Amino acid sequence: LADALKALPEQDSWDSRRNREMLVKSQHAWLAYRDAHCTVVGAQEGGSNMSITFAMLLCESKLTGERMEFLKSINGSR
User: Fold this and answer.
1) In whole angstroms, what is the distance from residue 52 CA to residue 61 CA?
2) What pLDDT is stored for residue 78 in this prediction?
3) DSSP per-residue codes, 47-58
4) How many whole angstroms separate alpha carbon 75 and alpha carbon 67?
5) Angle 22-59-29 from CA coordinates, rounded to 5°
6) How far apart are CA 50 and CA 55, in angstroms?
7) Distance CA 50, CA 78 (A)
8) What pLDDT is stored for residue 43 in this prediction?
9) Residues with Cβ < 8 Å from 51, sequence gap 6 or more?
10) Which residues make Cβ contacts (< 8 Å) with residue 11, sequence separation at least 6?
11) Those residues with Cβ within 8 angstroms of residue 64's Cβ, 6 or more apart along the chain or in another chain
């Protein structure tokens, strides 16, 4: 996240959706989504607490990897 933030302007005079503040807001919303979504994924797995937790962790790992690629693309596009 830090590298992506550095790649964005503090304020973009042409498009406020491209500034650092929007990326921070996006990251907070994404974290809430990831946690809630992976909780549901884990619950759908059923079984023991261990299998539910494992499914949640796999989900979090997958989504976090995807998010990291997105954040890298921000840094690479500037």
Assistant:
1) 14
2) 44
3) SSHHHHHHHHHH
4) 13
5) 20
6) 9
7) 43
8) 94
9) 45
10) 19
11) 34
Distance separating alpha carbons of residues 74 and 51, to the nearest angstrom: 35
Q: Are 45 and 53 in contact (CB under 8 A)?
A: no
> Tell me, what's the pLDDT at 77?
52
- Residue type present at position 78: R
Handedness of CA 44, 47, 50, 51 (dihedral sign): negative
pLDDT value, residue 19:
77
SS3 27: helix
Q: What is the pLDDT along the chain (78 residues), one digit of tens a residue?
A: 788 888 876 776 776 667 788 899 999 999 999 999 999 999 998 889 999 999 999 999 999 999 999 999 987 654
